[in-house]
């Protein structure tokens, strides 16, 4: 009996020791998992539900970050890739607010009207209609629905002055998948028609009309993260396809979404953009967005008469989310806001707050003004000497360039260009 009791005590002690080790291991695993989740949540903040809360409006010219040392006395001014660039202050006037706020929407100007499409209202809700802003009387009106099958964000879009061509994009909220469907809108009759689907779906491809063909290039592939370099074109006229299938063209030198794509004097330009983007969290039933590594760049390319890409002077700082944030005035490209490389300390997305000009006569860039706040995916128009922007996602405040509130505000300023 004594021997049996002694054996029982040893077995119990051994079991207890094993149990303690298992518990400690599980606790360590939980702490590591919690740390990784917190890091992921922090880096994903620009797509979290907190984005849609209101925050005070203001702007600063520089961004200073304390060094993480023991004395905490030294400070470091961030590199130009992250910090605001110097530029003149502009006098901005607030106009009539849009009927709904929009993030990752699209806009096309035809004469004195700005057609504003789709976009996120919140991360869990997307718009499926068009609103129209009239620059002459500065009012909103004329809302009408989009086709049910049409994408709600990350659209490729361009106009010939009457017909608006809409190519591919993301269908639904959060980080849902893309569609290959394409459409054309007659802005006079407000009627929609189908076009041949793109060979494969894309997110936010560079899109333009050039030499009678609808050109679509780059963007993100079906997983929303991998950059695509493919380039297709389709012959179109007066809102009608002249071919049944898209033609393969010369690939773009660098792939990715969220770029400006512009035709001036029979030359096609592609500016800025990024490689990588948010992806859907594996196994998430709502395709919840999860951030991945992104690289934002300054690249400027031009497609010339020989159908070869040429490299032009880079942008003043990396810039993305600018696909509808541009206008052309007096042989200059003007770009408003955007995003740049992520913050080196917080790893959060950094918004841009500058208005920049690329003078095609001199091939020189300049900062011609500052916005009332930093903003990305804003929608831009120009009428009677006034530069307008509306919608997008603004910063948290003058000292925090990370994204926060989705807006529907309309602002304008008299545009003054540099001659050099």
Task: Supply database-style keywords.
disordered N terminus; Kelch_repeat-containing; five-stranded antiparallel beta sheet; Kelch-typ_b-propeller; 420 residues; mainly beta; Kelch repeat-containing protein; 34 strands
Give an account of the 3D structure:
- By secondary structure, the protein is mainly β.
- The protein contains one helix and 34 strands.
- It has one helix at residues 2-43, and strands at residues 64-66, 75-77, 93-94, 106-110, 113-117, 120-122, 125-126, 129-134, 139-145, 156-159, 163-170, 178-186, 191-195, 206-210, 213-217, 231-237, 240-241, 247-248, 260-264, 267-271, 274-275, 279-280, 289-290, 295-296, 300-303, 309-311, 326-329, 332-340, 350-359, 364-370, 375-376, 379-383, 386-397, 400-414.
- Strands 3, 31, 32, 33 and 34 form a five-stranded antiparallel beta sheet that branches.
- Strand 27 and strand 28 form a beta hairpin.
- The longest helix is centred in the N-terminal third of the chain and has 42 residues, at 2-43.
- The chain starts with a helix and ends in a 6-residue tail after the last strand.
- 41% of the residues are buried.
- Mean pLDDT is 86; it is low at 1-17 and 29-77.
Offer a quick outline of the entry:
The chain is mainly β and 420 residues long. Helices cover 10% and strands 41% of the residues. The chain has one helix at residues 2-43; strands spanning 64-66, 75-77, 93-94, 106-110, 113-117, 120-122, 125-126, 129-134, 139-145, 156-159, 163-170, 178-186, 191-195, 206-210, 213-217, 231-237, 240-241, 247-248, 260-264, 267-271, 274-275, 279-280, 289-290, 295-296, 300-303, 309-311, 326-329, 332-340, 350-359, 364-370, 375-376, 379-383, 386-397, 400-414.
């Amino acid at each position: 009996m004594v021997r049996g009791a002694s054996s029982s005590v040893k077995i119990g002690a051994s079991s207890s020791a094993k149990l303690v080790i298992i518990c400690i291991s599980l606790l360590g695993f939980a702490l590591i998992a919690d740390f990784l989740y917190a890091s992921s949540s922090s880096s994903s903040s620009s797509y979290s539900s907190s984005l849609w809360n209101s925050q005070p409006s203001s702007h600063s010219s520089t961004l200073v970050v304390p060094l993480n040392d023991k004395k905490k006395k030294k400070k470091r001014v961030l590199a130009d890739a992250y910090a605001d660039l110097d530029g003149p202050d502009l006098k901005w006037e607030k106009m009539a607010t849009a009927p709904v706020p929009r993030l990752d929407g699209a806009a096309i100007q035809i004469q004195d009207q700005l057609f504003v499409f789709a976009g996120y209202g919140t991360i869990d809700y997307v718009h499926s209609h068009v609103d129209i802003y009239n620059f002459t009387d500065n009012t909103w009106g004329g809302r009408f629905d989009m086709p049910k099958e049409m994408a709600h964000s990350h659209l490729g879009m361009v106009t010939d002055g009457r017909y608006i061509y809409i190519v591919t994009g993301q269908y639904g909220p959060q980080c849902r998948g893309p569609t290959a469907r394409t459409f054309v809108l007659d802005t006079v009759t407000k009627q929609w028609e189908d076009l041949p689907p793109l060979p494969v779906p894309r997110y936010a491809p560079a899109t333009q009309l050039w030499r009678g063909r609808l050109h679509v290039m780059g963007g993100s592939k079906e997983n929303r993260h991998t950059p695509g370099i493919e380039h297709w074109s389709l012959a179109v006229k007066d809102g009608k396809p002249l071919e049944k299938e898209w033609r393969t063209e010369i690939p773009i030198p660098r792939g990715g979404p969220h770029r400006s794509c512009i035709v001036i004097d029979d030359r096609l330009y592609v500016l800025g953009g990024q490689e990588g983007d948010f992806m859907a969290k594996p196994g998430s039933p709502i395709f919840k967005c999860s951030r991945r590594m992104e690289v934002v760049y300054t690249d400027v390319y031009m497609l010339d008469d020989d159908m070869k890409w040429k490299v032009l002077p880079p942008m003043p700082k990396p810039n993305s989310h600018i696909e509808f944030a541009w206008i052309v005035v007096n042989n200059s490209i003007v770009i408003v806001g955007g995003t740049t490389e992520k913050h080196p300390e917080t790893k959060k997305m950094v918004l841009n707050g500058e208005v920049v000009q690329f003078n095609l006569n001199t091939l020189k860039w300049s900062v011609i003004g500052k916005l009332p706040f930093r903003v990305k995916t804003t929608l831009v128009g120009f009428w009677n000497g006034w530069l307008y922007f509306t919608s997008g996602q603004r910063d948290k405040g003058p000292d925090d360039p990370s994204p926060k509130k989705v807006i529907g505000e309309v602002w304008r300023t008299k545009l003054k260009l540099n001659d050099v």
